[in-house]
Amino acid sequence: MKKSLINTKFPSVLLLSFLFMLSAEISSAQYTIQAVVFALNGAASAVLLCPETYSECIKTDNLLDKADVAIDQILRERTKRGCIDGSLANLEDQAARLANLSAQLETASGMRRTYENTLVKIRSWQNTRNCTAPQDPFRITGVVHKSQVVAGAGGESLAVHWVGNPKFPVKMNYYNVGACPTYYNCINPSKTFTYSANPLIFNGALWCARVSQPGSYYFNYAVQLVDANGNKTQQESASFYCINQ
Hints:
This protein is α+β, with helices and mostly antiparallel strands. Helices cover 32% and strands 22% of the residues.
């Protein structure tokens, strides 16, 4: 994928001759990060000898082009579903290196490429969600909350970590799964989350009122998530003790 080229220091006929001899199609098997690194390492060495040795300028240009083709194809592969498969961090690092070496080549030889556009293209995906593997169901992976709350002192938060690809809004149901403690009437609060977040945090979910009899009261509660399509996670324990002083 040759970028726009302006050569201000060398004859265009000689440049085209060298490009014709050295340029080659990159095979699909070479569309890997390892191939990109290999090409950029070669370019980094060759550009140091440019322009004293013009063939090294051409070699640098050829290697940068190969790296750019590979980066572009890897990006296409990782984003073909409209989301990001894996991570673009390593690809972005190599694209930044490509742009830097291209600037070095321009300074040394006058060959001007637009490889910085490849870096811009990768960064345009940075706010796109990661793809979730189809075999990874919507499920809870962890529940974080305090084990004790003080009666009448205000509620404590319930944080639920999850994986999967739920359709939002997602509803968090927090409910009693056992006998309600003496002196208490149990309620089953819920909260709806319009936008994706991980964890989902239900502020004030754990709460209990003061009663006349001091003591420690056990609330056997569980939590479950339900998405907009009715897909449910498994039930996870989120019990706590109410300390009535």
